UniProtKB/TrEMBL annotation:
Domain DNA polymerase helix-hairpin-helix motif: 26-115
Domain of life: Bacteria
SUPFAM superfamilies: Nucleic acid-binding proteins
A Gene Ontology BP annotation from the UniProt entry: DNA replication
Originating species: Tepidibacter formicigenes DSM 15518
Name of this protein: OB-fold nucleic acid binding domain-containing protein
Pfam families, A to Z: HHH_6, tRNA_anti-codon
Length: 378
């Protein structure tokens, strides 16, 4: 598989496809590492190590210099040592920036924000000292350890937030490698979506079954990774977006009226649910025609609403309480009474962990239409 991925390094979509296939086979594709990676994708134990040639702005000449230095004098101990040891003119600011963004230095300095904030000054200092040495102006050996430490110091900076770190990875790799922005929303996506790209891929195995999805109503959650604006013949604005979930991506068509209504949500890097219908035509990739957009809220920020006919029905309340007791958690429960059209906030002892099993059990007892998840009220 390493050789196969290497053969398509110029095609990011293919690389992503093969990496997903590796994951499905239980093979991890490890992020780039300045002490482990080679130019090509390589086998490392039972896994595959990301090749440095697949990192944007990192050329084969500087990669060769890095690997040769590593093999000759051992692994790099820290970032400053790396910059000192690699004396190639091809090691410029753009190369180092891309290596930082993809996490290639994580094994020797895990704070990418710190490296981003300080690498230019470090590189300039080292380059300046080399020139002085060549000119005979000063020798690093004549400099005290304390002076040298003061010159080569990285600033104290807090690490990037996870979403920003992943975004920078994607900028230089064309994909997320150390995680995924949707990972923390996996439970929510499973609960609230009725389709995902994994199900879609499986459906494609039978073309007749795949065509049956045409015009079906769907709800899918994902992150908007690309947005293209187009002007219609009537001079209205519409959009074509690429929505990525944990399994792949799909094109979503947003017509002018929907774009105008949900423009605040339809932005790159936003995590949303799309409600709409499938459009599947022969010799074309599946598309979604969007009808609604909704922000994805974590389960912890949701409330459980249960509708019953009469709040005085003690037997009904007792049965509901028995179900809720199996799923203790931190989400509030509200009971809405149809008889007097009032909502009652459940006691603290009623608080639950909202999950699929809880919802299934309540829906079997009360009916699906009587169990809802809502965003927390402020």
């Amino acid at each position: 598989m390493a050789a196969l991925i290497t053969s398509v390094m110029g095609n990011t979509d293919k690389v992503v496809e093969y990496i997903r296939e590796c994951n499905s086979l239980g093979i991890d594709v490890l992020k780039p590492d300045i002490n482990k990676s080679f130019g090509k994708f390589s086998v490392e134990g039972n896994n595959i190590r990301f090749g440095l040639e697949a990192v944007k702005n990192v050329g084969s000449k500087v990669i060769k210099d890095i690997v040769l230095e590593r093999e000759k004098n051992g692994e790099f101990k820290d970032f400053i040592q790396f910059c000192k040891r690699i004396q190639s003119k091809d090691l410029n600011k753009r190369v180092i920036e891309s290596l930082i963004k993809c996490g290639a230095f994580d094994s020797i300095n895990s704070n990418r924000a710190q490296l981003m904030a300080g690498f230019e000054k470090i590189l300039e200092s080292i380059t300046s000292d080399r020139k002085k040495n060549l000119a005979g102006q000063v020798s690093l050996f004549e400099m005290s350890n304390k002076e040298e430490e003061n010159i080569y110091v990285l600033p104290r900076v807090s690490e990037f937030r996870e979403k920003e770190k992943l975004s920078l990875e994607k900028e230089v790799l064309g994909m997320y490698i150390s995680g995924h922005p949707l990972s923390q929303y996996e439970r929510e996506l499973k609960l609230n979506s009725n389709i995902n790209n994994n199900i879609l891929s499986q459906a494609k195995e039978s073309y007749e079954e795949f065509l049956k999805l045409d015009n079906k109503d769907i709800i899918i959650g994902g992150i908007i990774i690309n947005k293209t604006i187009k002007t219609t013949k009537r001079n209205d604005i519409m959009a074509f977006i690429e929505l990525e979930d944990l399994y792949g991506s799909i094109e979503v068509i947003v017509f002018p009226r929907i774009l105008q209504k949900y423009s605040h949500l339809i932005k790159e890097d936003n995590i949303v649910y799309v409600k709409g219908r499938f459009s599947i035509k022969e010799d074309e990739n599946a598309k979604i025609i969007a009808n609604e957009f909704e922000e994805i809220i974590k389960i912890e920020d949701k409330e459980l609403w249960i509708k019953i006919k009469d709040i005085s029905d003690r037997h009904m309340l007792s049965e509901i309480k028995n179900i809720l007791n199996k799923y203790k958690g931190n989400s509030l429960v509200y009971i809405y009474c149809e008889k007097n059209k009032k909502a009652f906030k459940g006691e603290k002892s009623w608080m639950v962990q909202i999950n699929e099993d809880l919802l299934n059990e309540l829906e079997c007892f009360l009916g699906k239409q009587n169990v809802k998840i809502k965003n927390c009220q402020n």
